[in-house]
Design brief:
Layout lengths: L9 H6 L6 H25 L4 H6 L1 H11 L14 E4 L5 H11 L39 H14 L6 E6 L7 H11 L5 E7 L2 E2 L2 E2 H4 L5 H7 L3 E6 L3 H13 L5 E6 L22 H13 L3
Parallel strand pairs: 1-2, 2-3, 3-7, 6-7
Antiparallel strand pairs: 4-5
């Protein structure tokens, strides 16, 4: 499965002239690979979890946590930190891998994923896991929560930005569109939503279950700035995040075009791997393929 080519907006193409360093991009690619490997290990170890979306969102999380977000792992509740709402909370394995690499939780804690008494639930829990800003998992709610954070920050005169990661299948939920109207009404230019647009959801393709195209035009019609990027190109992701931070008087939606199960041949583009753990042989193959991916 291939990502369809996306023509970058003019402002993104111009920004690329001052592009991020090759050293940074190499670090972000390496971090994304580490997120994938750790997510696969967590899911295989416990025999449950959601590999498809965890793998598709790894590059996005890498750029956010290791380049873009203002965070301090020593102070997870720092008032001026940027907020991140993982609305597609079933992709918790990728989030936990990023949090561990960023220093919010001990790497050893990843072995306790989905274990009774552990701090890493199947879906993120802000009362248990340092670095998690919102308990999520019920799809469609995260954007509304992010709007509350962004509006609260503006009213309090705080300078943090709020980021929300949603899925294209999640856009089936009507609450997202009520939230979209509210964000535009309040001119929340400190809010950036990122759609992990992998075209696949729990039991089929988005196109078959509830067609969402033209998705970019829908968000524009609701008053949002819309940017698009290859969601597996860390350079493009970093560029559009920079552009989003410069948008004024409206919220921004980044459509990150991705592949469900990215990096594992038998998972790519397959809804069957939305919420299924690999067996021992499948896990070993997945590790080999992700480790050898030098894109």
């Amino acid at each position: 499965m291939q990502i369809r080519p996306i023509a970058a907006p003019t402002e993104v193409r111009e920004l690329k002239q001052e592009s991020h360093s090759s050293e940074l991009l190499a670090e972000l690619k390496s971090a994304a690979k580490d997120i994938r490997l750790k997510a696969l290990d967590m899911i295989h170890r416990v025999g449950s979890g959601h590999p498809g979306g965890s793998l598709s969102s790894a590059d996005i999380l890498s750029v956010l946590y290791f380049h873009h977000l203002r965070l301090d792992p020593r102070r997870p509740d720092w008032p001026e930190r940027d907020r991140f709402v993982p609305s597609k909370g079933h992709c918790a394995p990728a989030l936990y891998a990023a949090l561990a690499a960023a220093g919010f939780i001990p790497a050893a804690e990843l072995a306790c994923f989905r274990q009774l008494g552990g701090s890493l639930q199947g879906h993120p829990d802000m009362t248990k896991t340092p670095g998690v800003d919102m308990t999520t998992g019920s799809l469609g709610h995260g954007l509304s929560v992010g709007i509350g954070m962004a509006l609260g920050g503006k009213l309090a005169g705080q300078g943090f930005r709020t980021y929300v990661l949603i899925g294209d299948g999640e856009c089936n939920e009507g609450q997202n569109w009520e939230a979209a109207m509210a964000a535009a009404k309040y001119k929340l230019d400190n809010l950036t939503a990122i759609c992990d647009a992998n075209g696949v959801q729990l039991d089929g393709t988005v196109e078959d279950i509830m067609p969402m195209e033209p998705l970019a035009d829908k968000w524009r019609a609701f008053g949002w700035e819309v940017l698009e990027a290859n969601g597996h190109d860390v350079g493009e992701i970093a560029d559009v995040l920079d552009v989003a931070a410069s948008v004024r008087s409206r919220p921004t939606m980044i459509l990150a075009h991705t592949i469900k199960g990215k990096g594992v041949s038998y998972m790519e583009g397959r809804f069957e791997w939305h919420g299924r753990a690999p067996d021992d042989d499948q896990y070993r193959q997945a590790v080999r393929e992700v480790s050898a991916d030098d894109r």
